[in-house]
Each structure stands twice: as structure tokens, then as C-alpha cells.
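Table 4 source record.
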Amino acid sequence: MVLLKLARFLQTYKKECIVGPIFKLFEAILELLLPTMMVYVINNGVAKHDMDYVLHMGGWMLCMSILGFGCSMICQYFAARASQGFGTTLRNVVFRHIQSLSHAELDTFGTASLINRLTNDVNQLQLAVAMLIRLVVRTPFICLGALGMAMMLDIKLSIVLWGSAPVFILILYLVVRRSSVLYRIYQQKLDCLAAILRENLSGVRVIRAFATVKREKKRFYMANDDLTENAVAIGHVSALLNPLTTFVMNTVIILILWIGSQHVDAGLLAKGEIIAYANYITQILLALIVISNLVVIFTKAFASARRVNQVLETVSSLPDNAIDRNLEKTQIEKAPFIALRDVSFRYSSTGDMALSHITVDIEKGETIGIIGSTGSGKSTFVNLLPRFYDVTEGKILLEGKDLRDWEVKSLRRKFGVVPQKALLFSGTIEDNLRWGKADVQPHDLQQAIEIAQAEEFIQDLPTGCKTKVERGGLNFSGGQKQRLTIARALVAHPEVLVLDDSSSALDFATDAALRRSLQKYCADMTVLIVSQRASSIKSADKILVFDDGILAGYGTHEELMEKSVVYREICLSQLSTEEAYA
């Protein structure tokens, strides 16, 4: 069962899961004894006008009620501990597992869906655990216990109760069958709504710039109305439980009182016993209402458990199966620093190849320019090097060793990646820069800032590196964010620096100054520069030219101007003839 797969997260809370229901069971026993004691109060006290007996038995009943209340509170405490601890543990495990997934799996789930699974679905499971401890043991016990006590009072009247059981089972089956399907659809539509909301909040400036607020409102309203319709459908089905249960049970009570009154007239049943019988029927009714609510809760939990298990059962396509192999020193020295051997890659098993048959060598300390039209595979190429994705065909070697044989953490420490979209995290500028290396020395931090050409605007800030960074770096311009992300990568002084079109927001003068600084201070660093500007990669040691996923050229600027039609067209479209051939 789907829910049982998550039971392992309750291992730490075995005591709470055992002790809590025991106290709740004790409370249920006390509750079942009260109507029987009421029989004695009525038959021996009220009927005989014995006030002392009534007060004596009433005192015992009061003590039992207080004791039952105390047991209920103890169970509530243990249920809260177990459910909250379960939720905390599960969130930690799911979050840690999400971090272990590759970009391919994260792309498949989507950010909005993962957020919902980590919050809404886990909250639903927390509630189910709390109800499991508090009510799942107590409620059936109350039903069966009250039924047993009622049978002890009058076996013939109990036939009516047994006759109503199939009706309850049919009602529960029909409601669960229909609502479970609706809940799964509801979660999917909730993911869709969350995705739209996330896009609108993160892209609010673009939406306003294009004056499409009304269109986005309509899009949100449609998704919200669709979710509402599904929620109403769930409500219609779930709402049938309580009235149907109450109707059937009240019908049973009427029949019992009618038949019971005949038994009282015939002397087969005392007045106190018929009152106790009615109390037991009421207890059964209340327990059945609780069961109907539990059915709704556990139906939701079942749908949520499937979604959480789907994440936990997803295996990363980048297993960290590092193999310790002692390569010959001469072999390492002869091998290129980075070597791609007939590499092909597609993002999905049914999609087209994003890269096809790429074979290239990159030596240590080289500056490699990467250029090509939009969608030609430039970013895909650099994303394969730190093993964000695994190649579909061929292999990539780093220092003569297949990337799949490297420990992922060790591999990525060699890379400093500056992505296309400059992203800063909340905190200070210094906090963001220390992501590259937490224990970086102040002079190294300052040097990274200077190389990235960020010193000038940081000095102009009143608090310098202590300046607060708003969510996503919204208080900085695009060019400032790009320079800060470059500095963040440089702080770790990686062996390979990947600049994935990360200077697109810089003016030409700043871009040129950045390249000069990299050449001067990072001579021992292998630098890969992805750019749409021919001027940015013109002076690179080697240039890779991509065209529709194929390596259309590889060489120096001068060699490519002679041999590569694609590269020549790009250069002549951006530079004058004199600049292109200079």
C-alpha cells in the first residue's frame, strides 16, 4: 500500500505511535462504561428516589469523565509529537532526495509541482498521521464496543444494527471510489495553478511591460475556476457522507425506539436499559460520522502519498558511482585536460538530438570561445562538462578519466559555472560571494571582485559588500548581477571557469576589461566563454562554432575566418570587414 511505504519515517516515533493509541483506547473504554452506569442510576437511584445513590454514582461518572479527558489530552500530545516529527523528517528526506536528482528529473517534475509535494502533500500526510494515532484505533473500538454492549442489553434489537451495516459499507465504498479519483485530479490542477502563479510573480515586470495583465488575469482565473470546479465536485461527493450516515443511523434509532418501547411494555427491557441502548446508538452514530471524515482525510492522504512516493522512487539519471582508479601518471600527462569523444545528447528519450557526434580536445589553461546561433547547442555543451546531464552517446574525459567515474562532488569542485540567468540569493553581497568558498580570505575575495569588474559599483554602495541583496537580486541591474555571479565563481578559483553568455548585459568596455583581467589573473585556469558576440571570443585560443547541434568549426579566429562559412557569416554580421579580418 502506498501509505505503508512512508511508515518507515515513523520509526523514530514508535513510542508515541504505541502509547498514544493506548491512552485513547482507555478513554474509549471509559466512554463505553458511562451508559451502563446510567442504567444503574436510573433503575436503582431515580426509580427508587435514592438521591445518595444518584450522587455516589454521579461522582464516579464525573471522575471517569475527567480521567477520560486526561487520557485524551495525553494522546493528543503524543499524536502531535509523532505527526510533526514525521512531517519534519519526511520533508528533510524529500528535500535531500530532490537535491540528488539531476536536471533531467527536475525538469520533468517542474518547480511548482515539487513545492506542492514538499508542502501541501506532506501537510496532508501529517494530518493523516495525527488522525491515525488519535482516531483510527478509538473509532472502530467505539463502534464495535457500543455494538457489543447494546447486544448485551437486547440481542433482538441489535439485529436492526447489523442490518444497517451493509448500507454503511456501500455508502463508504461509493464515496471513496469516486473521491480518490477526484483528489488525484485536484492535485494535478493545483500544480498547474501554482506554475501559473509562479510565472506571474517572477515575471510581473515583463507582464506589465507588454501590458498583458488582463490576459494573465484571465489565464489565472481559468485555472482557478477549473480547480474550484474540481474542489466543488469533491465537496459534493464528500458532503454525501455525513447526511447519508446520519439519515441511516437516525432511521435505525427510530426503529430501535419503536421496537424497544414494545419490549419495555412487555417487560422485556427496563427504562434505564432503553436509555442506555439509545446512548450506545448515539455513540455509534458519532463514531460513524468520524469515520466518514477519516475517509475523506485518508483519501486525500492516499493521493498525497502517491505523489511523495513518486519523488522518492525517482532514481537520478546521474548516479554517483565513482570508481577509484589509479591512472598512470604518464597517461594523465598525455591525455587532454578535457576530451569529448563522439558525444551526442538528447534531453528526452523521444526528443531530437541537441548535440550530435562532438569530438574535441581542450588543453589545460586554454581560453575557449563558444559561439553559434540561438538553439545551436552552446549551453547544452557546457552543461555536459560538470555533468549536469549525462551524455546519450560517446563519453567525456576529464584528466583522462570518464566523468561517470568521478565523484560528483569532486568533479564539480573543479568547475566554476556562471549561468545565463544571473541569480543571487537573499543575504548580503559577501554572503553570495562566499558561496564559491566559505572560508575565502578577504584579499582573495577582493581580487575576485576586481577581476569581475564589480569593484566600482560595490564601492559606491554605502555599506559595500555588506549591502543586502533582495530576493533574486532585484535591487541590482542585470550587468551588476552578472558581475557578482562571475565574482562568485572566481572566489573558489576553479580549474575550469564556464561563462555561459554571462556578460550579455555588460557594455563593450566592461566586457573587454573583464576578458583582459581573466587573461592576466587566471592564466592557469581553463576558461570557456559562451557568447553571441564575436568580439567577446575573437581573441580566444580556440573557438568552437555550433550550428544546429553540430560542431561546424574548431580553431583560431584566423583559421575559422578562412575555413568556416558559419563563423565567417557571424563575424561579418557583427563586425566590419577590417575588424573581422584584423
